[in-house]
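Tokens for chain A. Residues wanted.
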């Protein structure tokens, strides 16, 4: 019986050679696709497994790279690269568009049915693609209630869902309020889910290196937030059979 397959893809972005993880569902026909962005530390097996899980559900999934094949386990090094990136919407859009081009040109991808899902910095990249007017079916973010340049949220053409921990000091209530005010002013179909008692990156299993303050794994909410992401995709980007299947 046919199963999903994976392969590594290399592509240029942000002056680096990015190394992404592409997961393809069983079959040969075109399928809806998901662009999957990692936390600020960069692409890891956590995101690769999530891309694989999406492929098992019938999606073409690309877990994209942020740091040219590197995983930044040193918090100071991670912040030194991510903070300037988060302050530069055009730079984030460049990283997102480069990965999106890879996903769109994959023969198994239906280029008219793509969603962006992301965590932390990777979620901010997905939001910037929306603010840049990219035709997406849904944008889902975790730990990424980031705001953009004034007025550009009006270019978002799809539902936006954001999940955040109630105790997240990196995305605190004031930041959440600014994000939702931006979405509301732009008449975006937005939703916000607050996971009680959860810190930043609550979805990410514990790591064996130092992290920035305010990070913590919450097993119960980690499972729930994944179900919420899958539900968002089922609603906005349902898997349908292609005639070439």
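Reply:
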């Amino acid at each position: 019986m046919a199963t999903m397959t994976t392969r590594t893809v290399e592509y240029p972005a942000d002056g680096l050679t990015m190394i992404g993880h592409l997961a393809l569902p069983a079959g040969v026909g075109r399928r809806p696709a998901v662009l999957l962005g990692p936390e600020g530390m960069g692409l890891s097996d956590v995101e690769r497994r999530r891309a694989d899980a999406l492929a098992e559900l019938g999606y073409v999934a690309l877990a994209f790279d942020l740091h040219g094949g590197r995983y930044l386990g040193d918090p100071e090094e991670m912040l030194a690269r991510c903070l300037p990136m988060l302050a530069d919407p055009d730079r984030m859009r460049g990283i997102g568009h480069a990965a999106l081009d890879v996903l769109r040109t994959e023969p198994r991808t239906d280029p008219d049915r793509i969603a962006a899902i992301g965590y932390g910095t990777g979620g901010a990249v997905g939001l910037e693609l929306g603010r840049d007017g990219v035709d997406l079916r849904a944008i889902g973010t975790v730990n990424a209630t980031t705001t953009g340049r004034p007025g550009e949220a009006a270019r978002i053409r799809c539902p936006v869902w954001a999940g955040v921990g109630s105790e997240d000091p990196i995305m605190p209530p004031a930041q959440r309020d600014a994000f939702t005010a931006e979405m509301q002013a732009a008449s975006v179909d937005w939703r916000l889910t607050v996971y009680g008692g959860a810190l930043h990156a609550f979805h990410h299993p514990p790591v064996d290196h130092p992290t920035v303050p305010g990070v913590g794994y919450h097993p119960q909410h980690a499972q729930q937030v994944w179900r919420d992401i899958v539900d968002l995709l089922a609603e906005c980007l349902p898997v349908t059979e292609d005639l070439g299947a």
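The CA atoms of residues 154 and 186 lie 5 Å apart. The two ends are 14 Å apart (CA to CA).
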